[in-house]
Design a protein that fits this description.
The chain has eleven helices and six strands. The protein is mainly alpha-helical. The longest helix is centred in the N-terminal third of the chain and has 28 residues, at 2-29. Bound molecules: heme C (HEC) (2 copies).
């Protein structure tokens, strides 16, 4: 008996030591690096339609993080909406500046980063979402826009701030948060005429609604988004720029706690203008002011087709109380 206890003690001790060793290692290693991705895409000359699409997508999916309000360019900012337990994180300068921005990144390097989250130097860019299921056309439009003469990306000599990740953030990026692989096949969006399929594309590929609207960033599955815990059922605790919690809402079709009782015009109003039947919507819910009717219709059709989850968030309580 005594011997068994001793052995158990030894085993626990060893386990603790291994754990401590891992944490020390992770703390020293910091943000990991990988082989820089080399996508096989050829740069294409940007058409006016591509630039317009790129502008629309960047305003919807990038500007909230990368906008520097003092210059009104994408020169980067401190991300005040990252929970303090992750440390202090900063978005990068992605203007065309050759020294401080991405002026020297090649077309392929930009595509590689958008797809995988790995930079040209191999360093993993944390917090920056990777767009695994975005269509090749949409990715090209974004890259075309970043390399254009648009005022948002005019060169700004603002150095990107180095990241100051906490130990927890370092542990997460060395364990559960990983870069995504380059797609093995061309990625093509389904036609808008197939509303449900196109809507799925918008939710998982183009706008990544599921990333914020599922249970928790830590349990999202970027390769198979539908396998994310609580897919689209809300509950993910985000923060606004004052550091106050804002919980992402249930956008499945549950009639009481989701969007099941919403009409399509109400849904359009919420997405384009941030006005939900429950009142104004706040940051970090993006304002999708340039969504086309086709996109709204497809999103609505798809969200009504996914398994409805019953998951009340605080506005449901408020709405019930007001009834
Ligand atoms: C949630 C916030 C967030 C969003 C949304 C976001 N980014 Fe980023 N991005 C970051 C952060 C943070 C970094 C820097 C990461 C680092 O240095 O570790 C970054 C880095 C980059 C870089 C690399 C720059 C460099 O010098 O390292 C590029 C290019 C980039 N982002 C482009 C985009 C584009 C294009 C979009 C939209 C499709 C986008 N980002 C959306 C947060 C974001
Ligand atoms: C960056 C994170 C983020 C992304 C991306 C995002 N949302 Fe949201 N969304 C939120 C948050 C947070 C709220 C709650 C805002 C509040 O409480 O004011 C919200 C609220 C909503 C609401 C209001 C629901 C209600 O019950 O009032 C709808 C509808 C919605 N989002 C749909 C979408 C769709 C569709 C997409 C993709 C096209 C999307 N969201 C992308 C964070 C996000």
């Amino acid at each position: 008996m005594k011997k068994a206890l001793k052995l158990l003690g030894l085993a626990v001790g060893l386990l603790l030591l291994t754990g401590l060793g891992f944490v020390l290692y992770v703390n020293l290693r910091g943000i990991p690096s990988y082989a820089a991705p080399k996508p096989s895409v050829a740069p294409v000359a940007a058409t006016p339609e591509q630039l317009a699409q790129g502008e629309k997508l960047v305003l919807a999916a990038c500007a909230d993080c990368h906008l520097d309000r003092s210059t009104n360019t994408l020169a980067g900012q401190r991300l005040r909406d990252v929970p303090p337990e992750f440390g202090q994180l900063y978005s990068a300068n992605i203007t065309r500046d050759e020294q401080h921005g991405i002026g020297r990144w090649t077309y392929q390097e930009l595509v590689g980063l958008l797809r995988t989250g790995i930079g040209r130097d191999g360093r993993y860019r944390i917090i920056m979402p990777s767009f695994v299921h975005m269509s090749d056309d949409d990715v090209r439009s974004i890259v075309a826009f970043l390399r254009s003469n648009h005022p948002l990306v005019r060169p700004q000599a603002t150095p990107s701030h180095p990241q100051e990740p906490s130990l927890l953030a370092k542990v997460l990026v060395n364990t559960v948060m990983k870069p995504t692989p380059l797609p093995a096949e061309p990625v093509v969006a389904p036609p808008p005429t197939d509303a449900v399929a196109y809507g799925r594309y918008l939710v998982v590929g183009r706008y990544k609604c599921y990333d914020c609207h599922s249970k928790d960033f830590k349990t999202n599955n970027h390769l198979e988004p539908e396998k994310s815990a609580g897919y689209l059922g809300g509950g993910n605790r985000l923060m606004n720029q004052q550091g106050q919690p804002v919980v992402a809402r249930n956008i499945t079709a549950d009639a009481e706690t989701g969007l099941g009782d919403w009409t399509e015009p109400q849904f359009a109003q919420a997405l384009r203008f941030g006005q939900s039947p429950n009142g104004p919507l706040h940051y970090p819910m993006p304002k999708y002011s340039r969504l086309t009717d086709e996109e709204v219709h497809a999103l609505y059709a798809y969200l009504n087709s996914v398994p409805a989850l019953r998951n009340a968030t605080h506005e449901d309580g408020a709405a019930t109380a007001a009834r």
